[in-house]
Amino acid sequence: MGAVPRLLLFFCVGAMAVSAVTFLAARLLKKPPLLPVLLAVAVTGILSVTLLPSGSGAEVAQCDVGTPRNVLTSSSALLNVALFVPAPFLAVLIWRRPVTTAAVFAVLTGGIEFLQTVIPAGRSCSITDMVANSIGALSGIGLGVVWSRGRRQHFRKPLRDLLSGVAVITAGATLLAVGFNGRVRAVDVVTMDERRQEYADSLDGADQWIGEAAEGLFGPGTVVRQSSVEKDGPHSVITATTDRGNVSGSWPDRTLRWGWTARSKGDPGALDQEQARRVAHTYAVKWLPGFTEGSRVKVRELGDGTDTTAPYQVSYRRYSAGVMMPMRLDLTVTKAGRIMGFTSSDEKDPALPEVTVSAESAKRIATRETGKKAATALLLAQKVRGQWRPVWLIGLDDEDINLDAVTGKEVRPDPVKTPEMKVPLVEDGP
C-alpha cells in the first residue's frame, strides 16, 4: 500500500469490472457464478499488486538470480506466498484439473516477473519472488485437492490434465526463456550485497587510521570534517578532509599516498638543509617507513633563492644496480620545521634486464640523433609499452630524450599515473 498509493483504488475498480463480466459469462453458460467471480477477483488482486507502477526505482531489464535464502523469512516473500494461494485454490475447485492449474500459474508467475523486468514501472524481478509465488500457488492447489477429496469430487480426465499441463508448461517456459535471454540481464543481488558487506567490514579501522595520519601531519587537535573511499584494484583509497588540510592513503596496507596543508605558503625560519632533512626523516620513519629503507635522500630549496620563506623539498629515491627505481617520496618542509605536505608512489622494484649502454655512450647517441649537446644522463626504470625497462634520460640544451639502456634506441615511456591530490583552496588552521 505504501509503495503503490492507488493500489486499493485500482483493485476495487478492476475487481468490480471483471466480476461483472465474469458473472454475465457464467450466467450465459448456465454455470454457478460464485466461484468464477471469486477467482476473477483473486487474479485481479495478483495483477494489481504485482504490475501496477511502484516508486521503488528498481532498474529496468535486470533480474536478481541470487539464491532465494529468505523466501520463508522475508515479509515481502511471505506476502507473495499468501497472494498466490486463493486463485489456484479456486481454479482447482472450478475445473478440477490440478496439473493444468499448476502449469498455468507457473507460467503466470514467470510472465509477471518478466513484465516487471521489461516495463519501466519501478518493479523488480527476482528468483525469490518466483519461488514465493510458486509456493503460494502449489499451496493453493494442494488445498483445492484436499477440499475436493473431502467433498468426494472426482478430478476430470487425469491423463488429459497431465498432457495439457505438460503442453502449457513447455510452451510457456519456451516463450519465457526466449524473452528473458533476449531482454533481461541476470544479476546476483544476494552475492552483491554480501560483497558490499564484506567490503564495508574490510574498512573497519580505516577512518581511525587516516584520522591519526592527519593529526600526525597537521598537528594535535586536527578535526576530520569528511572522509571518502574509492576502490583502486585490491586496495581502497581513503581521503580525509580536515580543518587544516587533506590527506590520502591506501587501505588495508596503510600506505599514505599524499597529504597537503591548507597553509600553502612557507614560514620564515632558520632551518638549514640538514635540519629540514631530519624533520622530514622523523615524519617519514613513523608514517612512511617503507619509503625510507635503502633510499637515498636529497634536499633542495624551492624557489629562486631570494624568498626567505621558500621551503625545502626532501626527496627519497631507491637505486638498484645504479638504476633509479620507480618508488617516489617527496616531502615539503618549511624553514620553521613545519611539513607542508608530501606525495608518494609505492611502486615495487621491478626486475630489469642488464644495462649494456653506458652513460657516455647514451650521451653520444643522443647527440648524434638530435645534433644537440648532451649535458646530463640519468638512469631510471620506466615502463615502455607496459614493460619495465632501464632507460637513460638524457638532458639536452632545451629538451630531454629517452634511450633504452639495453638497445640504445630512443623510446617513449608510458605516462605515469600520479595520485590526484585534493589540495585545499583556502588557507585555514593554525
From TrEMBL:
Domain VanZ-like: 75-146
Region (Disordered) residue spans: 226-246, 410-430
Compositional bias per record (Basic and acidic residues), positions renumbered to this chain: 410-420
Coiled coil: none
Transmembrane segments: 6-26, 33-52, 72-95, 131-150, 162-180
Keywords tagged on the record: Membrane, Transmembrane, Transmembrane helix
InterPro entries in the cross-refs: VanZ-like
One protein family per Pfam: VanZ
Protein name per Swiss-Prot or TrEMBL: VanZ-like domain-containing protein
Taxonomic source organism: Streptomyces roseolilacinus
